[in-house]
Amino acid sequence: MFARIKTAYNRDGSERRYLQICESRREEGKVRQKVLCNLGRVEDLQNGKLDDLIRSLAKFSDKLAVVDAAEDLFADWSKEYGPSLVFRRLWENLGLHEILAQLFCERELSVDVQEAIFCMVLNRLTEPTSKLGVSDWKDSVHRPELESLKLHHFYRAIDFLDENKEMIEEKLFYHHTDLFTRQLDLVFFDTTSTYVEGDAGAFDLLEYGHSKDHRPDRLQVMIGMLMSRDGIPIAHHVFPGNTPDTDAFIEAVSDLKKRFNIQRVIVVGDRGMMGKRTLELLEKLNLQYILGVRMRNVKVGPEIVASPEPYTLVKDNLKVKEVTLGGDRYIVCLNEEEAKRDQAVREKIEIKLRSKLEHGNIKDLIGNSEYKKYINVTQDAATINKEKLKQAALFDGLYILQTNTQLPTEEVATAYRDLWQIERAFRNLKSTLDLRPVYHWTERRICGHIMLCFLALVMQIKFQKLLMNCESEYGYTEVIRALRKVHAVKIKVKDQEHLVRTEVHGAAAIAFKAVGARIPERVQKV
């Protein structure tokens, strides 16, 4: 259908123009136009009647109704809204706002620096980037308090975190405990490394060492973390990049006893922490411990494994037995599924060894750490060391713990298994929170950056636990993705500004419920 003007002429030659609604049709192979209705003379319709008619007809058109409404509507911007609402509530629930406000008041620092810390933690949790990147990223997030932040606020905030690391950790710990729950029972410890990019200069922390990032070509720092039984980070320590795990463990545990005023605690550490110095320190500090033993490096390892005590089933894939030797208490743990895998791997190595020896590839064997421990090399020949293969078979699927606690055997084994929580936390720290690589080039900035990641990790782990308490069917990553789709849109309607929230569905709604936050009104006046 279309509109057309039909012109007619009076006897005096003057024109009469009529507005018609017509339709084109094909009849007998020819296109013909049919008048559907006459709307009247154009002159009569131009006094406003035509405008009224068009508006009336527009009500029956979805598209034109929107176009008509949009004449008075202007959308200024759309920004992420969900994460800032949810994580700000969690930030306050954890007491971080209170803790920082007190420290800032004591040091007479501006509120902007405190807000900069929250801004950077929020960035770590959603879209990790550099401090320069955060300065730009904040403009895509709706939180009015972020608008005044400048780049220098972020760097001042990093310096503040470095200067007040210990105080923040202690206040955060005591905020969530009272006189009845302040006593730690189990503390897990582990270490990792992270390297520094660029020309970092020379200072005490940066050293070449054993890189757990597989980057021996980079200067690095070591990070040790202490975590409670429920998986919440308590404190972290930054060491020079060449610090042995044992030294890091000794310093961290000594510091733990002093700072948190603990009377009884069981320290759990992996096999890298085990050593004579470690045991002496723990005994001196009157601390109980559960430590992994390097089975193949301990003379009594085979004797402990071969002891006749029977195994007790703890779980489907874990059996344990207790052995006392030389006054020391050992717990032998057996994973039968892992034993089968260890046996299969060793048998493959033996097959490869025989094949290479038959073809005279002795140089390949000597240079391979996987093979050389199972061969004997003389000037004349190389042979398989059957005794070492036999000894290795003793340890299939096994690990040994040494402890001075009075805990039941099963609890000792279970406590050590829980060490995976801190290992997972380190994976989160270095991947989800993007700890590595570090681009800061001064000690205080590197340490401040790591403290920032520590706070973000506390937030992430606590949030994950809250989601589990809500029996959420959604994982952490899925919830974050859903939250980021919740936007605030600033619109102007007839010179009146409004904030319109996009819909909150599924995983995003669970996030608000988990932290106890109310979903804001859909439309708010600015």
Q: Say what oligomer this is.
A: single chain
Tally of distinct domains: 4
Strand content: 15-25%
Radius of gyration: 36 Å
Number of helices: 21
> Low-confidence stretches at least 5 residues in length (pLDDT < 50)?
none
Structural class: alpha+beta
CATH topology assignment of the largest domain: Transposase Inhibitor Protein From Tn5, Chain A, domain 1
Helical fraction equals 40-55%
- In angstroms, what separates the terminal alpha carbons? 44 Å
What does this molecule look like?
The structure is a single chain. 44% of the residues lie in helices and 24% in strands. It is of the alpha+beta class. It folds into four domains: 70 residues, no CATH class; 147 residues, no CATH class; 200 residues, Alpha-Beta Complex (Transposase Inhibitor Protein From Tn5, Chain A, domain 1), CATH 3.90.350.10; 56 residues, no CATH class. A hairpin with a 2-residue loop joins β2 and β3. The longest helix has 27 residues. The radius of gyration is 36 Å and the shape is elongated. 30% of the residues are buried. InterPro entries: IS1634_transpos, RNaseH-like_sf, Transposase_11. This is Transposase. Pfam families: DDE_Tnp_1 (PF01609).
